[in-house]
Design brief:
213 residues, DNA-binding, Arc Repressor Mutant, subunit A, homodimer, mainly alpha
Chain lengths: 213, 213
DNA sequence: CCTAATATTTCCCCCGTGATGAATAACGGG
DNA sequence: CCCGTTATTCATCACGGGGGAAATATTAGG
């Protein structure tokens, strides 16, 4: 008789939790949060859908577990912050482009953004991450007058690049080669890093600046 | 007896279609695409939910009808393009900020973006709109070498501002006053409008530019 | 004015989703 | 060996979008 998976605990010690996480990870990153159903994940993991509730509480819980699993891409950003301020925009641009162009990490980030637009809680998560991991760090790295504002503007620019290139895929930015991208976006990024009245970050302070109140 | 709304066509000529549209419009713009249910719209319009299917085919159909109802915000952008190139960034910034800060139009745009993240078709719509209404128009306005690329970068910057300020609400950009916003974002926008090697758009062509192949 | 076609409207049902609670089986410490 | 804990499935629930069929009003054709 078809003695299928009867009710109750399975024999042995199959790490079902991890198994579910792996399936969920791949599906979420390749199809986006909304387009994946718990049932399909459960089916692919050969497990009852209720197990997901049992282990992770909810679909969002599962998504959160998947997210916290993989390495933080903010680390790449933080790494790009170190070094000469003059070439910081180039480093950040290359780093961001690399991360988002990567099929694995890029899919993950797109999944996050897609979830953020849909759900308020996840939008707050994105906001938090952006502020903490990018704006604050950059502001600390910059220092000086208006550091926080300039850091915010810098991150806004990078966000715009990412959204147009990788999420909306607006031409011609979407299909530009990385080199051209860096050339195109370095000037504005540098412009926003400059304190008003200075021509070069950390440059000659005797340059004619605006009157400081 | 409570002779409630019996089955069949109502007497008179109540413009139910328009009535549904009005309710849907308000709900979609105030709560976002995903968070509004057809049933709740139908209830508020005092109508059976199947009527929405009848008139608009699907939820997306209803959303599309709602969108095509109101005026295009790209017109504001196009209007800001006219005038002196030197102060174009300021005009665009003020215009964009005004439109998105408006409770009515802003809600609508947020609803669109939220829908775009959820559905592929709507994402394509956003991409199309951005390319046609912003990049191409700006490129035509700019002219000159690399006009299309610079227009793309410009729009990427504006997109980034919008996403950080109005969608993700990342500080400090989210709560800056409009004046400060314009001051902060004008330099990078101007930087991207400049042809490489020129200091001012439409400026002295004898300035040392790159060799043209 | 009468009747057939058409438009609008409700009712009832389907299916898929996320979530919960009860039942059941294996595990593990005593 | 016994019993609490953990893992697993099953049976549902409430809700969301969608569709078909019947009922009623309006309109067109004579």
């Amino acid at each position: 008789m078809n003695n299928g998976p009867r009710r109750g605990r399975r024999t042995g010690s199959p790490d079902t939790r991890t198994q579910i996480l792996e399936v969920a990870r791949r599906r979420f990153f390749s199809e986006g949060y909304q387009n994946v159903t718990l049932r399909s994940i459960a089916a692919e993991a050969a497990v009852d859908a209720a197990l997901i509730s049992y282990f992770f509480g909810s679909k969002k819980g599962l998504f959160g577990a998947v997210l916290s699993l993989s390495a933080n891409p903010a680390d790449f950003f933080a790494q790009a912050l170190e070094g000469d301020l003059t070439t910081l925009p180039q480093r950040v641009l290359r780093s961001v482009d690399l991360v988002w162009a990567d099929p694995e990490a890029g899919s993950r980030l797109r999944a996050i953004v897609s979830g953020a637009a849909d759900d308020v809680a996840m939008a707050a998560l994105v906001k938090e991450a952006l502020e903490r991991e990018m704006v604050d760090r950059l502001a600390a790295r910059l220092g000086g007058r208006d550091a926080h504002r300039r850091a915010g503007a810098f991150c806004a620019q990078v966000t715009g690049l990412v959204m147009t290139r990788f999420v909306f895929r607006v031409e011609p930015v979407a299909s530009m080669r990385p080199d051209a991208l860096v050339r195109l976006f370095t000037p504005p990024l540098r412009a926003v890093l400059l304190e008003p009245g200075r021509r070069r970050p950390g440059g000659d302070p005797s340059a004619p600046g605006r009157k400081r109140s």
